[in-house]
Amino acid sequence: APADSGAVLASRLQQLPAESGCGVTASLVDGSVLLLRLVASGGDALAALPAATLEALLSLMHAASMRALQAAYAPRAGGAGGGAEADDVAHEQEAVDVLMEVWVSLLGQLGGYSRSRPPVVDDAAWGVYGAALRLRVAVAGGEALESHEEEQDDEAEAVAAAAEAERHVSLAMLGRARVAEAAALLQEACAQRGAQLQQAFAAAESGAPPAAAAVECMHEETDLLVRLAGHLLADEGEGSDVREVPMEVAAAGAGAAGAPGQAHPAVALSEAVLALLQLQLRAVLAVDDPRHGPLATVLSPTVGTTLLWFAERLVATYLMPDEAVSAVLSPQAVTL
User: Fold this and answer.
1) Closest C-alpha to 330, from 271, 230, 254
2) Residue 170 pLDDT > 80, yes or no?
């Protein structure tokens, strides 16, 4: 990239407010867009960058990403985001979206079938993924409560859902930089929500169901985690029904995230999500009509639909893949 463009980029991204509570500035958004253009057009030149220059670029991207994530999500963690202006929220989300595109572009430019990425790139992407995941889960419940207060028409809701799905895809690309660790992180979070769900079922059966707000937050967090797991483990292929095994998942070996005897990351994460599905099914089948039973206040049709969406992706990708159109297969995970 031209030196003057790099100087402009650096000056814009360095104009961040010193106070931790300040929102995203226009300079950050502009600088992020310029960064995206530079990275997207870098091509083979990015792979030839000296180590010090690459580390400086990663440091800049990491600082900008953490700044944007904190501004967009941290104030709303725990449902505390009621006072934010709509324009400010959109501005901050735009910065996050652009910076996620920068990371996806960089990972694609520096990796693939023909070359392996420098470990420092994967480490930096993993750091952003972990922070983004934790912040997104922290605000999921708050977003659910706010959505009941702010009604949207069907068209606006569909547009918002499509944008959110794109964010899940981008985040999954970052997680695949260290896919075993990302799968383990999601697996642990799913196991925690499973324990919470079991406790909620037990409380409801005893006649003292948990507060509606707590149940709503748990459901939204679970729904988000299941969708992120589904995108981490499978890509959309060519055609509406085609799913592809990401090459990073296929390349991950059993024991990649821990002891040599540990299950393949795709198997371990899938089992954690399917355990949530089993909990839902047991509760549904426990009574003649779950809509009117003691567990009705704890069950979620939305989460159940998302769990079935995950199961469909799992089957189409790993258990019954269309070998005629699938570019990548994962024999290790077919034993599911």
Assistant:
1) 254
2) yes
The reported pLDDT for the residue numbered 244 is: 85
Per the CB < 8 A criterion, the answer to whether 31 and 69 are in contact is: no
pLDDT for residue 10: 52
DSSP, res 318: I
Residue 300 tokens read as: 């979620």
β-sheet bridge partners, residue 236: 243
Number of H helices, E strands in the chain: 12, 2
Residue 257 Cα distances to 252, 269, 275, 323, angstroms = 9, 12, 20, 28
Of how many residues is the chain composed? Answer: 336
Maximal C-alpha separation, the chain = 70
Query: How far, in Å, are 231, 252, 287 from residue 313 at the CA level?
Result: 9, 19, 29
Q: What is the DSSP string of 47-101?
A: HTS-HHHHHHHHHHHHHHHHHHHHHHHGGGTTS--TT--HHHHHHHHHHHHHHHH
Give the C-alpha separation, 194 to 205, whole Å.
Answer: 17
Classified as helix, coil or strand, 243 is: strand
Determine contact, residues 183/268, Cβ cutoff 8 Å.
yes
pLDDT in tens, 187-199: 999 999 999 999 9
Q: What is the pTM of this model?
A: 0.84
Instruction: Give dist(CA 247, CA 253) in Å, integer.
Output: 12
Cα atoms found within 13 Å of the Cα of residue 177, Cβ hemisphere only: 28
